Amino acid sequence: MADEDAVFDVIVIGAGPVGEIAAARVVRGGLTAAVVEKRLVGGECNYYACVPSKALLWPMELAYAVSRMPGLGLRGPIDTPAVLARRDEVVSNYDDSGYVDWVEKLPATFVRGHGRLAGPRRVEVTTPDGDVRGLRARHAVVIATGSAPDVPDVPGLREARPWTNQEATSVQQVPKRLVVIGGGPVACEMSQALHSLGALETTVIVRDGRLLSRIEPFAGELLALSFADAGIDVRFGRSPVRVERLDPGGPVTVHTDDGARIEADEILVGTGRRLAVDDIGLGTIGLEPEGPIEVDASMRATQVPDGWLYATGDVNGRNLLTHMGKYQARICGDVIVARANGRPDDLPSLRDTADDRGAPQVIFTDPQVCAVGLSEAQARAAGFPVRAVEYDLGQVIGALLQSPGYTGRAKLVVDEGRRVLLGATFVGPATVDLLHGATIAVTGEVTLDRLWHAVPSFPTTSEIWLYLLLECGL
């Protein structure tokens, strides 16, 4: 006779940052929870993406800043082994026991294994030893399985065993020759990080005519100049047509559509991600197995009867950013608690509005690229009455104090009808600290006339707000 299912109020499949937050919120609200994870608890972000990539990029940023400042010239190259050791430290040497302890101290029940839906409110977990354990939810199942790197269908590419963000961020031996496919955040960040750590010949193949094509054009232009200054070879308007690797540990050859041939020691693919929903049992409840899982503003799946299924983070396709997934998880957990206890579930804090207005994003390249809300092109396509203003960050005394010849730019996108911000973009060294103020202004729909009275400190780069508002006619 099969073992009886273990019963919990809520079952969370996926124990990355998003799943952890969802579980924490339901437990905080007095419900019981089980958390299922096959791989490392803490998820892609903590081991192979956000956290380790920044551990690799931060020394590069410091080195660039110091090398630009008179009197503080950088002496010698970056100590790559020391940087990699620090990276290993911040990812806990790929040991997830600390995160497992955190989950269990919520308290929630942690189940190690591959979780799959097996009908309404039921989850089957295949454990590492091959056993199958049944779980049943009284109130809700939350899918928080995230996404995985996508490898395009280029002849020979998969056979060449390319790096993705996972291999790039966990690198133990930096290749001397590196070819990168893609012009988005992962490709740009890891190109610069690995180049600074010893990839002396770094070639970036970009299908589009610019880097970071979803952000304001000047962002990609300034970043391309930085790549050129560093000796990174960027080839715009090109695509790989064939990849060859004859020996498993040997060199790789990339053929591009202009007839060029690029030899490298490793190839890194940074062309996008696919939703991790292909083997979680969506078909058992009548959903398409490839996703995304469509949800309403409370994160509840819209195509599942009785409203017991929720999806947070990448799997719902709303926004593939960790901080936005964590935001959705807070909403999701609190909504589940409210509904389980018969309390109002329509409070403003229980609905996702941030995704519609534009999520903040930081690309930790040199220069940093920081954006929130809509770009000018997006705002015009949406039919807003748009006014866009730009200003040279290098003209702000606070920026010039950071280094002579500071290069950067800022832009606001304004809804002329309501006189509120639709979007903001800042590109330059150390611009990340300007972003949250812009996020508050965009999310809160603060009018330009009110922003005029938010006085920036002197001498800081935040004075850019004064100059941008002056450009708006205030």
UniProtKB/TrEMBL annotation:
<keyword id="KW-0274">FAD</keyword>
<dbReference type="Pfam" id="PF07992">
    <property type="entry name" value="Pyr_redox_2"/>
</dbReference>
<dbReference type="InterPro" id="IPR001100">
    <property type="entry name" value="Pyr_nuc-diS_OxRdtase"/>
</dbReference>
<dbReference type="InterPro" id="IPR023753">
    <property type="entry name" value="FAD/NAD-binding_dom"/>
</dbReference>
<protein>
    <submittedName>
        <fullName>NAD(P)/FAD-dependent oxidoreductase</fullName>
    </submittedName>
</protein>
<dbReference type="InterPro" id="IPR036188">
    <property type="entry name" value="FAD/NAD-bd_sf"/>
</dbReference>
<feature type="domain" description="Pyridine nucleotide-disulphide oxidoreductase dimerisation">
    <location>
        <begin position="360"/>
        <end position="464"/>
    </location>
</feature>
<dbReference type="InterPro" id="IPR016156">
    <property type="entry name" value="FAD/NAD-linked_Rdtase_dimer_sf"/>
</dbReference>
<dbReference type="InterPro" id="IPR004099">
    <property type="entry name" value="Pyr_nucl-diS_OxRdtase_dimer"/>
</dbReference>
<feature type="domain" description="FAD/NAD(P)-binding">
    <location>
        <begin position="8"/>
        <end position="321"/>
    </location>
</feature>
<dbReference type="Pfam" id="PF02852">
    <property type="entry name" value="Pyr_redox_dim"/>
</dbReference>
<comment type="similarity">
    <text>Belongs to the class-I pyridine nucleotide-disulfide oxidoreductase family.</text>
</comment>
<keyword id="KW-0285">Flavoprotein</keyword>
